[in-house]
């Protein structure tokens, strides 16, 4: 592999910043994304970069990593001015980026992905599989994961795929490693492992630029913090001089009020009663059970949280209820006292269920279509008369959604793909609220959206439960979110229901205890 | 200024059409009387007549492609239908064609009767129920199933009562106009059912259908490459000639069918929930399914309609060329796909329009016409057609500058000017706004 970087790493880099960006500005058409931003990163430091969505973090990182080649301002690596025309050039200078959205070829193996474009070769022609496999193993070991280098990436879980990304960046012997929300899809255990690796990398002299929305992570991990707001540099300080609240205030420009979201202690009647819900998915030749009997009652006006690690079966519960799983569902679902069988999302919608999926881009939105078209999609047929769409009604419906959810857009005709993450999420929620559901299933409702939008979505969930008596199920990987929102928390592990905690009982520790996977013997 | 530019870029399709039209006018040979031959009424009608068959096929293809699919079987489906049509017109008694086409027509009548009556019942119910409930109306068994089924059965009965007596004699114009498209629709629906039910790639399924249907067409026709001539007035009804003559002396019948089909389908795509679903499926099928859209039904319908239009094109083909034959539609699917793509419809699905397809079809038609007027070798015409496809798509996708950069070898920095950079900037804006 590439060893030449090793001897180019001089000790003199300690005093001088390894990477310095000064006066960086970038505009897209009429929009100013960055104006005069400074960033110094020293060897061996973990530098957290924070800011709300749209603050310009991603743009800055894309400039640093050579994705964007036209901008104002200057970049220096070890005091030498540089400009990167491509990602390759940035990589050659020792700057590697791990994007939030995975950049892997699903059909290739782990090792092939790590060395994609840089495959070890035999006689310059044939790919040397054995060598790349051998080279991949220590990289994976360094991450502390027992992944088979020959495993197909498509068969891995999202968390594992993320780790492959990281291994790929490690293989570049990067001196500056940029991580854009690396933990957004990882389980707490995987996060811990990642943090260990990050600290170890920093100790070995790599500079880490760490972008995250999760304050607790940053407080735990970072040496220094820089905050961007609206494309401008707001502060850079050692973490010791900052509190969480100070960072939030710098990011948002205002103080967030802590709110208590507990719904009234008396909840409404049982709306949905699930008994022994099982789900089997097609697996190789046969079927594999991924949910082993889940039972719970859902009351009107209640928020039920579902906690657990990635792959514990949380999403599968929602999919089974909504008729959206590609598998066999067993067990009884009683809705309003009547036994129902939900075989398709269409039937689920008819029964008053709504599912806001985890991945809004893949499963929630038609990105090229307008807000109207997205919001009105489930109801287009319902709003039409004798086969003709009633465009005015569709508009009224979506304008109402835009107004009541506070979707920030230039108008309801704006394409959904051009909205920020938080506003896209609100469009998806608005689409489902328009169908007037009685049961709202939310899968990671605030994943990848900024603090302000998160708060708005929490308010909305609370309002829907309290004022409209909607029954809400929230699946979330973020403990504070789960604890904040849920009246009760059902904890899943390995497709089994491990327990249910009431609001007063629930703490992060208790949830973690229940969510921790047990060895095969203990589980049986 | 930018408003003007964006207007030009949005309407560039029409500019292409206008440009090729002007090219035709300016380069046209002039008749002995000093008239511009290209602009003569007769010539323009010829163009319309020539594009009609491809145009009908391309119309059906557009919706299929917008859902993110593709239909390679249309040429072969048209071939079957020309054989069926020619056979019913010219051969008496229970031929192979009559044997399988009549049951198909019956099934189609049943399905159509069922759908129409159910549609009416649902909509009556909808206008009765409170409009803001936000839920679909649910029909009970009688009104949801029994009544529509009965209506379908009645319609099928009526149709067969009309068609069966024509078997021992020969079929009339109306008869073949009903039966041939029904055959196309059935085969198209089979495409759709396999794609949806078997979760198979549209490319594979319709490729298989393309081969199968060609085989069926040949088996039906009797011998390989058998041509079934249709002589109106001698071995077929004289009125069949109406399908190739001018209607009201203004417009050729095939052109009328094409225009009616494309306008109607454009309206369906634009104005009905079905149309919205077609775009939604192409844009994000998973999101559409999870929104409770009947994605399967919609997809089956697009393939069925594609087959139906191939069937109509087949009848017009028989009228136009006075014959039905198994290789009637050879290569037609590719012409249709090319026209759709030139019209700006994305093969990835979710984006496109009938207006674009109309322009695409006309650009092709006018081009061949111009080349014919200049007596240019037909093989050279093929080369030019290919260039036109690549050229227009490069302009459509605004990738021309990228190609230039690519050809100038990687040594150079990416160009800082030009359309592609501007577009990249727009895309950067988009990703910025997404994150």
Overview of the structural elements:
The complex is a heterodimer of chains A (524) and B (435). Chain A has 524 residues and is an alpha/beta fold. Among the domains of chain A are: 270-352 and 437-523, Rossmann fold; 366-436, no CATH class. Chain A is built from 20 helices and 22 strands. Chain A has a 6-stranded mixed β-sheet with strand order 6-9-10-3-11-12, with helices on both faces. In chain A, a hairpin with a 2-residue loop joins strand 21 (488-493) and strand 22 (496-502). The longest helix of chain A has 18 residues, at 451-468. Chain A is globular, with a radius of gyration of 24 Å. Chain B has 435 residues and is mainly α. Chain B has a domain at 50-91 and 170-397: ABC transporter involved in vitamin B12 uptake, BtuC, CATH 1.10.3470. In chain B, 70% of the residues lie in helices and 2% in strands. Chain B is built from 17 helices and 4 strands. Chain B has helices at residues 2-10, 12-27, 41-66, 74-90, 96-128, 141-163, 173-197, 202-221, 253-271, 273-283, 285-290, 295-321, 332-342, 354-373, 378-396, 400-407, 419-434, and strands at residues 228-229, 246-247, 251-252, 323-324. In chain B, the strands form 2 sheets. Chain B has a two-stranded antiparallel sheet with strand order 1-4. In chain B, helix 3 runs parallel beside helix 9 and helix 4 (74-90) runs antiparallel to helix 7. The two termini of chain B are 30 Å apart. The model of chain B is unreliable at 411-422 and 428-435 (pLDDT under 50). Classes of the chains: A alpha/beta (524), B mainly alpha (435).
